[in-house]
Amino acid sequence: MTCLPQPVPGAKKLGLVIDLDTCVGCQACATNCKEWNASGHSAPLPDLRPYSAGAEGVWFNRVHSYEAGEGAAGRTVHFPRSCLHCENAACVTVCPTGASYKRAEDGIVLVDHDTCIGCGLCAWACPYGAREMDEDAGVMKKCTLCVDRIYNETIPEAQRQPACVLACPTKARHFGDLGDPESAVGQLVRERGGQPLMPELGYQPVNSYLPPRNRSSLAATPEEAAPTEIKNPLLRWMDRVLSR
Amino acid sequence: MNPAGSIVFFTTASGAGYGLLFWLGLLRPLGLVPGQGLVALALALLLITAGLLSSTLHLGNPQRAWRAVSQWRSSWLSREGVAAILTYIPALLLGLALWVDAPALALAAGLLAAAGAVATVYCTAMIYASLKPIRQWHHPLVVPGYLALSAFSGAVLLAMLAAFAGGGAVPALLAILTGAGALLLKRAYWQAIDTAPPIATIESATTLGFIGKTRPLEPPHTEQNYLLREMGFRIARKHAAKLRLIAQGAGFALPVLLALLALLLGGMPAALALSLGAVLALGGLLIERWLMFAEATHTVMLYYRG
Fold first, then answer.
1. Digit-coded pLDDT (tens) for B60-98
2. Handedness of CA A185, A31, A60, B219 (dihedral sign)
């Protein structure tokens, strides 16, 4: 059914919080995502011409890098882009077959690969480029929020997290219930001022991006006091002697 | 957006077929089309069916296409499928009525077929008009444009067939009127999309606007991917101005002039003029439909190109 589930106040909204301040652009999340999903719910995650020129493949996570601002105030920001599991997910409502759906119980947006006809309309409807076609199987694939990890009772509890979150060496990725303002991710979004992507389109993304912290105070730190400004006469003498 | 050949052919062929079915369903029961009308109906159904079959070539799993009629409650693509299939019923009944010469059935089936044709083209247009990330499609003139182009190409075809059947000034007049209307609409649409502001910026797409102007530094991958091939198409924009001129001239202006000429000439010269007009109109519409895709931009390219 491609109608969206009725929004219920306090409903679970599983998603990611991505810290643009600490992401170092190492691509570990993208690589571990590809690794896990090549054999999980969305398997296979094919590559086209993998061993020749023009190699490409289906990835659920793409890490861009941007420059923002000018001069000393400018920043290089690494920016992982994946499915935002939107509340108002047009990728779901446009689907003609019901293959694309949003789960009522946790808000995860998934594709049923057995009923997808591969028309590609959901990829057109996604402003964020979260969906990529598996051109071998002729069906659409997308981030599953590692639905086959987070509820998987056969792996240790600490590892029941999306592969991208586990792989991140700087803890720039956090997973949790964004429908609960008191959850760890809910608090993080509140304290750091988490932002949605392209809010003007009205898709209401669940994933939130934490803005890079302001570094201007660091840049303005005064240099160490010059020797002539040392007030204590004894220290001033020592500094003079030792500086010879 | 990548102009997939199967989809461009589908919108042109099925659009013309539904236009033809619409005018035939309305005019034939009123006696405004000479001849039996079965040839026109056959041509309409041929164009519609060829277009619909072509559109399934675009699918990754065409054998599952039947599933596409299930989600009519939310999906315009699904509604299009339902409308297209349902329209076959009155269209075939119209054929039966014309065959056995049953005027009452022809009137009822004709009106229903005309309504079905409008509904199907409307659903097709809404598939595009409902996509917010593509500002050239998410535009109030897209739906009127689809309806006008369908009405125009259908009228040109009906005028041609009517001329061969010996007369029928009404279809030629309709071709002139809808052609002029479609041309004006298309020009207004082009002007509107050329001057409209972007719906989103790289700053809103990345949240980084608070730091300052944002520009891509390093791409996430060095080779192509599905997104770049499907939504990063940009060959046509280079030639857009010339292609627009060709589409306006060949697709609208010349067929309208030829229809005018046909009204003055009558007889066999009129039929030949309208045949040339129909070929030009369909050719021009293929270019126009191709441009409709090629000129459309998707917000995902903000992430790649800023």
1. 999 999 999 999 999 999 999 999 999 999 999 999 999
2. positive
How confident is the model over B123-137, as pLDDT tens digits? 999 999 999 999 999
Residue A203 in this model has a pLDDT that exceeds 60: yes
Query: Hey, what amino acid is at B183?
Result: L
Contact partners, residue B222, CB within 8 Å, separation at least 6: none
Please check whether residue B298 touches A, CB under 8 A. yes
CB contact under 8 A, B211 and A68: yes
Length of chain B: 306
Backbone angles phi, psi at B184, to 5 degrees: -60, -45
More confident residue, A149 or B35: A149
Is-contact B269 B260, C-beta < 8 A? no
Q: Which domain holds residue A127?
A: 14-219
Q: Are strands A14-19 and A208-210 parallel, antiparallel or unpaired?
A: parallel
The class of domain B5-305 in CATH terms is mainly alpha
Taking the C-alpha atoms of residue B128 and residue B3, their distance in angstroms, rounded to an integer, is: 13
CB B212 within 8 A of CB A74: yes
> Among residues 192-211 of chain B, which lie with CB inside 8 Å of chain A?
199-200, 202, 204-211
pTM of the model: 0.92
CA distance B211 to chain A (A): 5
CATH code, domain with A89:
3.30.70.20
Who contacts A110 (Cβ-Cβ below 8 Å, separation ≥6)? A41, A100, A101, A102, A103, A142, A144, A147
Q: Where are the domains of chain B?
A: 5-305
Domain count of chain A? Answer: 1
**Does A80 fall in a domain?**
yes
Q: Which residues of B touch A216 (CB under 8 A)?
A: none
Residue B220 pLDDT greater than 70, yes or no = yes
Query: Residue B68: its chain A contacts at CB < 8 A?
Result: 96-97, 117, 119
Taking all residues of chain A, what is their mean pLDDT, rounded to a whole number? 92
Q: Is residue A188, in this structure, part of any structural domain at all?
A: yes
Domain presence at residue A151: yes
